[in-house]
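Note on ligand handling. Small-molecule inputs were canonicalized before submission; formal charges were left as drawn, and no protonation-state enumeration was performed. Where a ligand contained multiple stereocentres, the stereochemistry in the source SMILES was retained. For pyridoxal-5'-phosphate, this procedure yielded the string shown in the input block below.
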Amino acid sequence: MLEIKNFNESLDKVSNIIKKYQNEINEKNILPKLSREEMHHLIDEEFPQESMKIEDLIYEIEEKVLPNCTKIGNSKFLSWIITSPSQGGILGEILTNGLNQAPFNFKAGPMATIMEELFINWMIKEFGYKDEAGGILVSGGSVSTLTALAAAREFHFPAMMESGMHSIEKTPIVYTSCKSHGSIDKAIGVLGIGKRNLRKIQVNENFQMDLDNLRQRIMQDIQEGCKPFCIIAQAGTSLTGAVDDISKISKIAKEFNLWLHVDAAYGGGSILCDSGKKLLNKINEADSISFDPHKWMFMPVECGCVLVKDRKNLFETYKMDLQKEFSYDIPIDFVDFGIQSTRANRALKLWFAIKLYGKKELAKSIENNFELALKLYYELKKIDGIEVIHKPMTAAINFYFNEKDEDEFIKFVEDEFFINTCKINSKKCIRICFNNYRATKDTVNEILIKISEFLSK
Ligand SMILES: *Cc1c(COP(=O)(O)O)cnc(C)c1O
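Structure output:
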């Protein structure tokens, strides 16, 4: 029997653990202190044969798991781009799990399906797409790019889903910036195009794809008998947050009849605020866009989204029943629009949080992140001993210490801040990322104090 007798009471206890984690989110030690080995020993055992009392199990979570979680929502978690998940998003996620809808088709998740359509339609309008556009929620940026690129491949090589790589004569070529995310390489590999057919175009001093170089490479590939079919522009590279010149890239894509995909996994969420809208100017010229609500829309993981200018392209790639005819009027079953069959109701947390906060409140948090990155930039520029690598286009900023060791700085601040190093132009640097609604001007000031203490050490 898998029923739990005191389920209601247990649910309260479980929710108490979530409360505790949330209430302590801003406390020190963002990363747990135990080593990986010590954590392993905490719970290592053979596959349990007998049942256990639920009280004891919940106690184990409280004692062993809770203290060993990373505090991703902490105001001083300034690494990577996973955002602080909003509490509205978390409540939505909890409900999602409890209600367990599986909207591959309407009956498996009736309201879930409607909510997903609604969210996709909201975002279509935000990104400036027209009614023929469509999309689907997926696990994150990696899968949304894969989902879109398969549609791009099917559009240019329509026999591919059916007959595979053997059906094409010329080598397919894809272009992206040399600063693009590794998930693109993975997708190109998985799609059978081959990573060596992914051209990594150099970037200019702002870390944006160099367009002369792009054009030259396309012409060279055509001359050599290959078939270029897709450009992937970046709207927020993971390291520097650079946004490519989408408008100009779109012209090149049109000139050579290439699919334009924009990897906006990072920057896409900022479309909700004015700075983001300006930055993502002309993104609606792209044939497809991937963006991650679990990045700059403050959603808990996992939540990615792919949008396509014409939803027919997703349908023609992913329809389950090959006899099924496409029409813009038929109600959508999401199983026909993406890779997954059984799938989570990711729309619920989005719907819940967006309604709870409203666009204005979300926009304010995103706008604030832009401002904090700029504030830190201007302050860092004033400091001797530091070389700032770029002006932030989004909310990431990178700098070198001229004479001090970057790893030592990370150690120096690690009790309070979670900050990482990365390599830019093959030199190690400090990377700080403000995709965090809890970060404030005080957070910036505290970093500056740490830096000045470190420099005078
Ligand atoms: C994070 C990121 C991805 C990958 O997205 P996941 O959600 O981690 O799968 C792709 N591209 C860029 C630019 C990213 O920042």
